[in-house]
Amino acid sequence: MKLYDLLNLATIQLNSEREVAMSRGLDAPLEIAQARHLRTVGSLHLYSCDVPPGSTFLPDIPVTLLPGNDMEPTEGYLLGWQNGSLILQTFDHVGQTLNRCTLIPDTSGFLETGATRLADMASKPDSFTLGPAERLVPWLDPEPPSNQEAARDSIPTTVLTTIWGDTRQTRWTKLTTLIVDQVRKNKRILLVAPDHHTVDQLTGAVAHALKMAALPYRSLLCRYEMPLVKDAGGMLLQDFGFEAQMSHFFAKANAKKVSLRKKYDRFRELTPILAYKRDKQKDLNEVKLLEWRLLTQLSDWQGKVKNIDKTLRDYEALPIWTRMSMQVAGKNIETLAEYREIYQGKILGLMKEVEVAQKRIKELIPEATVPKNLRPEYDELKEEIKRLGGTKKIREMLAAGEGTNRQAFAQNKRIITCTPGRILTDPLFRKVPFDLLVIDDAPRIPAPLLLGATGTIRERIILSGDTSDLLPGEPGTT
Prior knowledge:
Blueprint: H1 3-23, E1 30-41, E2 44-50, E3 62-66, E4 74-82, E5 85-90, E6 97-105, H2 107-123, H3 131-134, H4 137-140, H5 148-153, E7 160-165, H6 168-184, E8 189-192, H7 196-212, H8 217-220, E9 221-223, E10 231-232, E11 235-236, H9 242-249, H10 255-314, H11 320-328, H12 333-368, H13 374-387, H14 391-411, E12 415-418, H15 420-425, H16 428-431, E13 434-439, H17 447-452, E14 457-466
Parallel strand pairs: 7-14, 8-12, 8-13, 9-12, 13-14
Antiparallel strand pairs: 1-2, 1-6, 2-5, 3-4, 3-6, 4-5, 10-11
């Protein structure tokens, strides 16, 4: 099988998986009980989402988050799972805590984008660098020929190298040593692992190795995009985030773009605040309505007690027939006193409820009160955002202005660590060439994703993985 055939086969596979995803309803909206903001790096935000048990997602698929409370939706990507919660990276901050929000995954869109990328690699080979990728065919052929082992052994190690090991520590020691050596040779390296957790740990290990080699690890290494954990291998991963490094590098942007970014960020900042105030105002209105109902009932019962007191006070002066008619109705001196005691008990109960309601009203008033200048500022920003085409259009405008910067910044890095799903679907990785592709835990990565990561590799591919993940008889298992 040739690389062209393998690419077409992978394209068919992704398109087939897309049809399955659509038929199984994997793009259906999902109600999220609660989402919590974890941290912000540059213009990206990390949220932890509580999802119903049994929910399954592909990593790196694009999603839309509907926060509710009349707030505008935001887009992002699913990064994976952490402590039983789904980790979501968004482009906008939508509040510290979200209750009853909606998540709309785009699994079919992710698979379609990946299939398009592989189809382009097959139909437009001149737009890619596919020399080293050809050497992967003996490893990825779904119908291996009888001479497969000989075909693999014939591949020069200068083009395709394999590093198998029973323990991660053993493999990573070899990998980091190789990476440090290649960095000293001024090579550009794309470092890939199956999931974001592994990428984070591997990034920390490489950073530590570069530091021990007395190399400028902060300027050499970059994690695309946000790390899930704060530190790994004794290194602070926030220092290596692509967005954080790029934001710092391009801090001095043009004035117009800065102004637009400030307006956009201020609008996103005020939106959850006013949504919170709006919710508290609804609560305040409900409590005030409850207070009014309680006071109305209290007034009615107090009126009844007042009438009983007047009747008891004037009882002896009432005409005999009036007293007789009252007695016929069960309203003599004794029963009136009993009624008064019952009414008084209801009054005391209502007064306690009124006291609780008034206390809650005092608590809600400052929470629901919108500062005098905040509402006009928000309305002005909202009108400006609307005039420019909405938040999504503004994000596209800002991204268009940053597109060249992102590519230039990525090309300035010697090592970029990432997952294969992001490489397959992110246009950035179609434009930025690399000398080496290092793939850790390669047997755990599906063939279409592996192929997608090879499109811009100029010199060499290095496969690494656990020996136990290899099929019996494959090189490295003996």
